[in-house]
Task: inverse folding
């Protein structure tokens, strides 16, 4: 046996870079945008504190813990305690950022967020990694219904960022926002795509039209905006015009931007999201359009199926459930053909 | 509480105390001792044994099964991940221990050659 195996070299504090990245091969990435943005913001905002439930290294909060050890609280694998403690700290005037995985932050801690944090409109920022289908670990770790659950909580702002740029710009904005926030977090090596969109910047509460196109309007959030931009390029080669309206704030939803984008052009509307087709952005958009009496040329949900998803390699699963570049393009082509 | 209240004497709970979790050693993430006292306070019959010592493990199961008290039983196992394979025992590990394909064979060879302490004959 080689000595390399006997004495493995490892950095003192391994980052989430060791975890499989959702970036495709060769894609531009930025490391730990959440952790870095929070460290920067906290430098001039002493009221910011960080809490986690045994997942500092896996939510990039370890950077905050290293920079401000006195403002970091390890709560252990106890998500209800995490939310309760964060609520208490917010009541004392602090701005707690509480991190864990999205399945644990929502399914395990729901009542504590509802009762301790949201009902009192406390300034807690809940930032949860592994949203939707961003891990191959199976339903125990795949938060495919987190947005459906969280949309039901009154007064809770919900953010589903697309990439590293969205995340680093969202951090100071959700921190400055008065009230509770649930943000889906991409951690580790995070894709960077929105810097290619001229003049784009994340604005809490706003949807942004990233590109125009005459045939299809994709309304999307999270990593599905990245996919939608890729698919738009692919379909452009077939002379199919795809517009992309990015809605990183799910609640409150920018209904005005959505209604305007749908109303003035007769296009097929596809809502693409890294979430179950039940209770997410798709349902929110459908409801908004009906209430505003807007009827698109066609309406389809490109989300994850209402099912417990398989475990496996992420690219395989994204193909299987229709959110890989190829699978999403195929779905949209099919809907265009049947329109 | 429910198990003791309902006198579940056919329930045997096993706790693997490997002291590993995502952010580091469990005792440092959030101290959990004294574990035996906590279970006892909830009305359980408690045994604590070395989980890598197979005769002790088997004896603990026998004792749990033959107990006459109408109580749920818990066996707390103190364990060492990678026991018997020095290069795994000493690895700076977290709760996702990673073993590369050639290392599996190396580990099996070591286990075949040495009779690790606590292994059944």
Result:
């Amino acid at each position: 046996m080689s000595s390399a195996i006997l004495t493995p070299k490892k950095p003192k504090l391994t980052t989430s870079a060791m975890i499989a990245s959702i970036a495709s091969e060769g894609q531009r990435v930025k490391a730990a945008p959440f952790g870095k943005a929070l460290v920067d913001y906290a430098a001039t905002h002493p009221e910011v504190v960080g809490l986690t439930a045994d997942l500092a290294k896996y939510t990039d909060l370890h950077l905050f813990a290293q920079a401000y050890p006195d403002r970091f609280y390890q709560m252990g694998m106890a998500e209800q305690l995490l939310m309760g403690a964060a609520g208490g700290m917010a009541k004392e005037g602090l701005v707690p950022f509480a991190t864990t995985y999205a399945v644990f932050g929502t399914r395990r801690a729901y009542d504590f967020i509802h009762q301790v944090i949201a009902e009192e409109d406390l300034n807690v920022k809940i930032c949860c990694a592994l949203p939707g289908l961003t891990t191959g670990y199976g339903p125990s770790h795949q938060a495919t219904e987190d947005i459906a659950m969280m949309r039901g909580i009154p007064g809770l702002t919900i953010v589903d960022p697309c990439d590293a740029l969205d995340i680093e710009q969202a951090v100071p904005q959700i921190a400055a926002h008065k009230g509770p926030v649930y943000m889906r977090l991409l951690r580790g090596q995070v894709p960077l795509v929105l810097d290619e969109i001229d003049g784009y910047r994340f604005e809490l509460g706003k949807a942004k039209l990233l590109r125009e196109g005459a045939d299809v309007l994709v309304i999307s959030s999270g990593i599905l905006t990245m996919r939608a931009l890729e698919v738009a390029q692919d379909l452009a080669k077939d002379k199919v015009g795809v517009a992309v309206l990015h809605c990183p704030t799910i609640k409150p939803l920018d209904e005005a931007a959505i209604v305007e984008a749908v109303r003035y052009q007769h296009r097929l509307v596809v809502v693409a999201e890294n979430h179950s087709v039940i209770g997410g952005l798709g349902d929110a958009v459908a409801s908004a359009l009906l209430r505003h009496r807007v009827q698109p040329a066609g309406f389809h949900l490109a989300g994850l199926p209402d099912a417990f998803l398989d475990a496996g390699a992420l690219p395989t699963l994204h193909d299987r459930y229709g959110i890989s570049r190829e699978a999403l393009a195929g779905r949209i082509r099919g809907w265009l053909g049947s329109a | 509480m429910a198990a003791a209240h309902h006198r579940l004497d056919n329930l045997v709970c096993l706790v693997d105390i490997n002291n590993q979790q995502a952010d580091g050693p469990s005792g440092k993430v959030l101290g959990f001792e004294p574990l035996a006292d906590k279970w006892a306070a909830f009305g359980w019959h408690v045994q604590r044994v070395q989980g890598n010592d197979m005769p002790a493990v088997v004896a603990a199961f026998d004792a749990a099964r033959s107990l006459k008290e109408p109580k749920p039983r818990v066996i707390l196992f103190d364990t060492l991940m990678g026991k018997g394979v020095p290069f795994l025992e000493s690895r700076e590990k977290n709760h996702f221990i990673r073993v590369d394909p050639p290392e599996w064979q190396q580990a099996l060879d070591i286990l075949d050659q040495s009779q690790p302490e606590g292994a059944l004959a």
